[in-house]
């Protein structure tokens, strides 16, 4: 009896491994292997044309003295610090509006989500046109209302803001997640709050916000990671200006800098080092958000 | 969902709705209408610009809709560069990605959902944690690997990885496998059906909506991808639509009507798929955020 159940268990395990084997192979070949290789390369001066040789921490030292590295960090943080909270706020606002038991909620939801499914290249090309300082529709609308018309993407100080404006068009994904979060809030909690004399603001502050804080938290983490891997828009929209990353590198996002270093300049060792620094920054920021989350994220039930 | 709430909202309104609440409803709808108009302006502007003549694009004040729509813009935009070929390339890559992801991810997800084996929990955590690795970290070594394999300037780097599972889709499908009761599978096993046959004939049909979601997402991912084609495809005859569009923008930088016409064509397939399969999009996105 015992032996048979052992045999069955072994059979089940073999089957399990067989089913997940595509991922195991893929993990080793496409993730684990490259991860180790990338760490090693970050200590070499590899250029694809000549064999790599080990140069110790030289790439990392070089980074400290590389103005492009600091520019790209600045551009990325500037974009993240403004766009992540702004987009979350807009997404939350839209989700709350859609959660008011409105008719045709699905239609509105579809409309707001639509920009998220479009190819980023086409979206960037479109916004290049919308943001065109002389003929773009945005500045013409601003002119119509008597507002100043910034030189989007042309002057360095109006480069990152252009990307931020464009990012608001893509809040649909976060909106859908937040809307689902809002719909999961038990109605009984609101009823209890009303009995306790809570008004609209109190209901939002003490019921809605705590209940959806895990979802807000998730979006915050994703937003930070997203800013560091922001590439396509930066590449397509920056390509028309300066040396391909906006005037005075004002649109040199971190991921774009990695691409330029690794694949235009063929400094593949240096690009790997840049990527590892990015990995650690993202990891540190995520941990920071996680650590602080116990102060403001509420999880129902026994989950921590 | 919305049908139910609309159905209950109507009779309530007929009875007697306090004035304050009625004003509030009007305000909500006005705000929603204004915001959705605002969200649609960019797309409208894209289509309207695509139909303008070269001079109409630059007139002031702007023309909202061209007097004589220039349908010829589409023809001109599409024939200057071989967009038909680009579309075929993109379609081929996208379809192979769909097949690869659906097959590999459903196998892996079923393995994690139904079988007990040593290290299952740790392996699954490992799978989830790969979602946190920025793709930029893997880019250089992957490029070198494909280069050494002689895969540069072929579709292989853009298609082969799809056959080895993708963390997000595995996670999504596993969630669905967990919700179906195992009794049917057990009954089939007693009847003597093999594991693989049970998987293909009994299990997979039950999660068709989830498989559709994975198919749609991987189609979208491949169709919209820019970085991989940019890295791996050099030969113009192998370009995808996204590469073609950047190339087009580079060579026609002030012919905005033609650039917009090309853009409309590039987004059109995604628009159609989106309207046909919106509920799958919503489902998939919701799963990411709330169950993660």
Automatic annotation (TrEMBL), chain A:
PROSITE patterns: ABC_TM1
GO cellular component: plasma membrane
SUPFAM superfamilies noted in UniProt: MalF N-terminal region-like, MetI-like
Xref: InterPro entries: ABC_transporter_permease, MetI-like, MetI-like_sf
Pfam families listed in its UniProt record: BPD_transp_1
Highest taxon, organism lineage: Bacteria
A single GO BP: transmembrane transport
Major site of localization recorded for this protein: membrane
Record keywords: Cell membrane, Membrane, Transmembrane, Transmembrane helix, Transport
Compartments reported by the entry: Cell membrane
Occurrences of domain ABC transmembrane type-1 (ranges): 73-289
Bilayer-spanning residue ranges: 12-41, 77-98, 110-130, 160-182, 211-231, 270-290
Membrane topology of this protein: Multi-pass membrane protein
Entry's family note: Belongs to the binding-protein-dependent transport system permease family.
Listed name of the protein: Spermidine/putrescine ABC transporter permease
Species for this entry: Alicyclobacillus cellulosilyticus
Classification of source organism: Bacteria, Bacillati, Bacillota, Bacilli, Bacillales
TrEMBL record, chain B:
Domain ABC transmembrane type-1 per the UniProt entry, residue ranges: 87-277
A Pfam family matched in the record: BPD_transp_1
Cellular-component GO terms for this entry: plasma membrane
Cellular compartment(s): Cell membrane
Gene3D superfamilies in the cross-refs: MetI-like
GO biological process: transmembrane transport
Keyword Nucleotide-binding: no
Superkingdom in the source lineage: Bacteria
UniProt keyword list: Cell membrane, Membrane, Transmembrane, Transmembrane helix, Transport
Matching PROSITE patterns: ABC_TM1
Membrane-spanning parts: 23-45, 83-110, 122-144, 150-173, 194-219, 258-277
Main localisation: membrane
Membrane topology designation: Multi-pass membrane protein
Sections of the chain in a coiled coil: none
Protein name: Sugar ABC transporter permease
Species of provenance: Alicyclobacillus cellulosilyticus
Lineage: Bacteria, Bacillati, Bacillota, Bacilli, Bacillales
């Amino acid at each position: 009896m015992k032996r048979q159940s052992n045999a069955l268990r072994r059979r089940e395990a073999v089957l399990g491994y067989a089913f997940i084997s595509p991922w195991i192979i893929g993990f080793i070949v496409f993730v684990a292997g490259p991860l180790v290789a990338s760490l090693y390369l970050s200590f070499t001066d590899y250029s694809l044309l000549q064999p790599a040789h080990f140069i110790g921490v030289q790439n990392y030292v070089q980074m400290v003295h590389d103005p492009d590295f600091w520019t790209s960090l600045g551009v990325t943080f500037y974009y993240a610090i403004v766009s992540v909270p702004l987009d979350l706020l807009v997404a939350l606002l839209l989700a709350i509006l859609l959660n008011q038991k409105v008719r045709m909620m699905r239609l509105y939801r579809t409309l707001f989500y639509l920009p998220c499914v479009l190819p980023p290249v086409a979206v960037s090309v479109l916004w290049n046109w919308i943001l065109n300082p002389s003929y773009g529709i945005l500045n013409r609308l601003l002119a119509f209302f008597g507002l100043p018309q910034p030189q989007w993407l042309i002057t360095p100080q109006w480069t990152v803001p252009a990307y931020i404006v464009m990012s608001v068009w893509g809040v649909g994904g976060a909106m859908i997640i937040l809307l689902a979060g809002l719909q999961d809030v038990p109605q009984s909690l609101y009823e209890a709050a009303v009995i306790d004399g809570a008004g609209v603001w109190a209901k939002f502050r003490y019921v809605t916000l705590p209940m959806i804080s895990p979802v807000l938290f998730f979006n915050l983490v994703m937003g930070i990671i997203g800013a560091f891997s922001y590439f396509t828009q930066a590449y397509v929209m920056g390509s028309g200006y300066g040396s391909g990353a906006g005037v005075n590198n004002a649109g040199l996002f971190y991921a774009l800098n990695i691409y330029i270093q690794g694949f235009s300049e063929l400094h593949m060792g240096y690009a790997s080092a840049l990527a590892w620094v990015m990995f650690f920054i993202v990891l540190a920021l995520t941990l920071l958000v996680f650590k602080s989350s116990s102060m403001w994220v509420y999880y129902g039930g026994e989950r921590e | 969902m919305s049908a139910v709430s609309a159905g209950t909202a109507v009779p309530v309104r007929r009875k007697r709705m306090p004035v304050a609440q009625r004003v509030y409803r009007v305000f909500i709808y006005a705000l929603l209408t204004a915001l959705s108009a605002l969200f649609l302006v960019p797309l409208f502007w894209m289509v309207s610009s695509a139909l303008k003549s070269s001079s109409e694009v630059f007139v002031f004040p702007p023309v909202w809709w061209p007097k004589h729509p220039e349908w010829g813009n589409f023809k001109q935009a599409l024939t200057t560069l071989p967009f038909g070929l680009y579309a075929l390339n993109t379609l081929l890559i996208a379809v192979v990605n769909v097949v690869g992801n659906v097959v590999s991810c459903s196998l892996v997800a079923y393995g994690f959902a139904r079988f007990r084996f040593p290290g299952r929990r740790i392996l699954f955590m490992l799978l989830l944690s790969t979602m946190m690795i920025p793709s930029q970290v893997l880019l250089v070594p992957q490029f070198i690997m494909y280069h050494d394999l002689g895969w540069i300037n072929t579709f292989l780097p853009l298609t082969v990885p799809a056959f080895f599972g993708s963390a997000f889709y595995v996670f999504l499908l596993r969630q669905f496998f967990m919700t179906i009761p195992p009794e049917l599978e057990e009954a089939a096993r007693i009847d003597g059906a093999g594991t693989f046959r049970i998987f293909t004939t009994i299990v997979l049909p039950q999660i068709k909506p989830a498989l559709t979601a994975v198919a749609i997402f991987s189609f979208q991912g491949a169709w919209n991808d820019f970085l991989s084609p940019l890295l791996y495809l050099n030969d113009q005859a192998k370009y995808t639509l996204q590469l073609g569009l950047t190339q087009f923008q580079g060579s026609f930088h002030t012919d905005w009507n033609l650039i917009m016409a090309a853009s409309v064509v590039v987004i059109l397939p995604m628009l159609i798929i989106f309207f046909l399969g919106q509920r799958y999009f919503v489902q998939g996105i919701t799963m990411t955020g709330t169950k993660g």
